[in-house]
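Page 42, continued from yesterday. The earlier attempt failed because a stray header line got pasted into the input along with the sequence. Redoing it now with the clean sequence only.
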Amino acid sequence: MKHRVPVSSIMTKNVVKLNLTDDLTKAEMLFKKNNIRHIPVVNGNNIIGMLSYTDLLRISFADAVDDDEEIIDTTVYNMFTIEQVMAKRLITIAPETTIKEAAEILATKEFHALPVVEGDLLVGIVTTTDLIKYLIQQY
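This time it went through. Structure tokens are written below.
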């Protein structure tokens, strides 16, 4: 296996993002449309939080039955804002962080995605799925 490979080589660069002013209905639509499980929340281009699909499931059973359903029950979502539901204490990494270092962080924490930043600027995201795909390529 290669050593010192940066996460920039496996991260998603065209990141789907939410603004703090967006609502949870939009978040669910983005999760479904893009088949993803983590969305960084930004203010401009600066990351201020992370919303996971699990965060939505904690407050609603709207999607527990049918992931293909186009109509979203917004009743529960209207009771919360993204800021109330998102994770605010983030661990971020730089593009030059090694894949091994990212894997070590994800292996010891209770989350499955790391925002990749240069300063405060969001430039990518790396997930446990990205790490598994990278591992598979090594064989």
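Notes: The beta strands are 18-19, 38-43, 46-52, 113-118, 121-127.
Reminder to self: strip header lines before submitting.
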